[in-house]
Amino acid sequence: MGLFDRLANLLGLRKKEVNVLVVGLNNSGKSTVINNFKREDDRCIDIVPTVGFNVEKFAYKFFNLSIGVLDNILFMSIDTGITHFPSLPFPSLTRICTASDKLRLVVVKEELDMLLQHPDVAGRKIPILFLANKMDLPDSLTTVKLVAGLGLERIQNKPWHIRATNALTGEGLQPAIEWLTDQIRDIYINKR
Amino acid sequence: MSRWLEALWEPSAGLFSLPGGLDMLDISGDGDARLICADLGPVGSDSTKIRVYKGGDQITEHNMIEPPCGVVGFYTENGEHRSSVVAVGAGASVYIFKNMRPFFKYCLPHIDAHPKEREIWHKCGLDEELNVLTLADDLELLLKELGATFLSPRTLKFLSLDNNLRLSFAEQYRRIPLVKANALTAITIIRRDSWNDPASSCLILGTEAGEVLVLDPRAFSVMDKYILEWPPAIFASCGLWTGDGYIIIIGRDGKIGTIRRGSSVKLWETLPAPAVAIAVLTSQGAAVAVMDGTLVGFSKTGIKLWHINIPGIILDLVSLPVPQNGLSLLAVSTVGYGIRIYDGKHHVDTVKIMEPVSALKYGRMGQEERTIAMVTVGGGLCMKILKRTADFNTNNSISNLSSSNTSKFSIPKKTRLFIDQTIRERAEAKKIHNTFQQGFLRLRLTTAKQASEHLSENQALGSNPITLETNVLGLGPNYMIRIIITNISEDLSSTELYILCRAEDTDVNPRVIDLPLLPSAVPIPLAINANLKGQISGKVKILLCKKSNPKPLVITTVILPAAEEDFEI
């Protein structure tokens, strides 16, 4: 590492590599959310169901986010997602739930509990961002109802945040991702 | 821990459904499956409706004139999500809804009335002046002759009317051709020619006149027609109709049989009691819930494989295919024992529920593939989702082991060894057969030999339980061998027994002793003198023999120790 690199590092100018795992049930809008972070000309027009695992890299403020999209229903286990990020720390997690599908709330809760009990997640202070997607649909649940329905108040050892979003228009995504980057920055500052 | 997630429990949904009255279908092609429910209304009311639920909320309802006998959802085109239609069988018609809007009505063909009855009404229609009294007399006679079941509703209505109302009734109807309406008894679907999803399906209708009609999914015209002569009550289908698919039919009296395309009905057997419901298993068989409280498993050729007793009264039965685990489970709704889940004949799980469930449906609801929808007898709607991590194998691994000799072994069929073996078998069939026959004969011979030997031995020993006790007395070289013989059986021993002594390096006197008749449990002492010939120890074999039998019954060996040197005194 050259002198200049070290200097840039010290001053916090150099962008850090951060891994973000995006988890959600099928058809909850994970790929659509990520599509929103891309530059205009890179965006896909048709979003097809993700099979397996996708990794996208892009820069946002101070960090190079590499975001992995994982469909845990298709993949049967989040283990795959975690092993795809061998360069731990794995500091952040975005969980997307469909605000409109009341029937699957129990499924989301079950999957979330399993994720939180995962040995790579359980004991660590990983910020979790919940996106209550599809808020534009008429029968969507409010974030307050989702917090109660998913029992989010039980998560005490991790910073978490919930945000109603609409991935089609990008509404609510910017404040959500800003919260996430703030959290990640805090982690790095505390480490130093 | 439960294997089910409770997604919805709506105790006051006001739904009343019977087996076959529920289906799940993506009605508008937007990827979200809805629950379609034939609601018969509370007991005593006539308000029958078709209700459609999205998630836990009712989105539409449609009034029906007649109570439906079943609701099925299917696709009319291969690979076309938007071609989904809902068919509701009621009365003599099938109402087809597309996007939950009335789309088509298929009417069952009329049945011809009895020729005599037709003749009477025809004659009456030709008459200038209507003579109600003759008409009434003729029909009265016909009723006595044929019985009410063979008469048309018009005749029955006419005869039940008051005398002074008959004239206007007959006047109104006598010139209209007489027909007898048919009624639908059962409705189901069978995939037409594709295993892909979604695939077009043929509609299968069963009528009161004992016909089975298979309708084309596009034109709703009759593709195939079968005459059963007994009304089918429950259908199940398996496979592709244009391929090797078949329809399993159960009659009201418990007759069960199958129809394949192009062949007539093949009866399996008659069930001991009427059937409640049938569920097809992915292993190509079917399970039938019978009203006598048993669940019967059939193979695809109609062989009864197993039957188990179910506690409580059975209300419905559906199959729960879980392809991720390679399982095909059965859910049986019982009164008082919840929903019992079976893997074949093994009970693996029970889903507890507040009220007995009158109708069950398992399938895709919304985005969730493994949802079970239940309508309770009290009108409640409950939905549960099978957990992704649910494992039905842990509980029954032991019971599976015990039944493995009856179930199929999963031997991989195309191994290298298997292929070599098949080629060799084909090439040298005669030789292999001869070798096998030879070996088999030899095996039989050896077995027979062993068996006969065993038998004769048993006879010899079993009838002569005699103990032999030997002692060697003396310092040598002159010894005395004392033998004590005891008959330990309760009867007298057989005669012709003798004791034979065989000796090496020893003089024995006497060599042979004939035994007397041995009374039960009395020890008999015998004495034999034995003199050692040399300085080394001797060996005497004592054999208990029977004169007719060359083989000794008992053998003992006595060792005579080497004698001490003679002392010179």
Q: Could you outline the blueprint of secondary structure elements for this entry?
A:
The complex is a heterodimer of chains A (192) and B (569).
Chain A lengths: L2 H9 L4 E9 L5 H8 L15 E8 L2 E9 H4 L3 H5 L8 E7 L6 H12 L2 H4 L5 E6 L9 H8 L9 E5 L8 H19 L1
Parallel strand pairs in A: 1-3, 1-4, 4-5, 5-6
Antiparallel strand pairs in A: 2-3
Chain B lengths: L3 E7 L11 E4 L8 E6 L8 E7 L2 E8 L3 E8 L8 E7 L2 E6 L2 E7 L7 H12 L5 H15 L6 H8 L2 H11 L10 E8 L9 E7 L3 E5 L6 E6 L4 E7 L7 E6 L3 E6 L5 E5 L4 E6 L5 E5 L3 E5 L5 E6 L4 E9 L4 E8 L4 E5 L2 E6 L5 E9 L2 E9 L4 E6 L10 H6 L13 H12 L1 H34 L3 E8 L4 E10 L9 E8 L1 E4 L2 E3 L9 E9 L5 E9 L7 E7 L9
Antiparallel strand pairs in B: 1-28, 2-3, 3-4, 4-5, 6-7, 7-8, 8-9, 10-11, 11-12, 12-13, 14-15, 15-16, 16-17, 18-19, 19-20, 20-21, 22-23, 23-24, 24-25, 26-27, 27-28, 29-30, 30-34, 31-33, 31-35, 32-34, 35-36
Helix pairs in contact in B: 1-2
Overview of this protein structure:
The complex is a heterodimer of chains A (192) and B (569). Chain A is an alpha/beta fold. Chain A is built from 8 helices and 6 strands; from the N terminus they run H-E-H-E-E-H-H-E-H-H-E-H-E-H. Chain A has one domain: Rossmann fold, CATH 3.40.50.300. Helix content of chain A is 36%, strand content 23%. Chain A has a 6-stranded mixed sheet with strand order 2-3-1-4-5-6, sandwiched between helices. Chain B has 569 residues and is α+β, with helices and mostly antiparallel strands. Chain B has 3 domains: 4-110 and 182-386, 7 Propeller (Methylamine Dehydrogenase, Chain H), CATH 2.130.10.10; 111-177, no CATH class; 466-560, Sandwich (Immunoglobulin-like). In chain B, the strands form 9 sheets. A 4-stranded antiparallel sheet of chain B has the order 1-28-27-26, with no helix packed on it. In chain B, strands 2-3-4-5 form a 4-stranded antiparallel sheet, with no helix packed on it. In chain B, strands 6-7-8-9 form a 4-stranded antiparallel sheet, with no helix packed on it. Chain A binds chain B through residues 25-27, 73, 76, 101-107, 110-111, 114, 139, and chain B through 5-8, 31, 55-57, 324, 365-368, 371, 383, 385, 387-389.
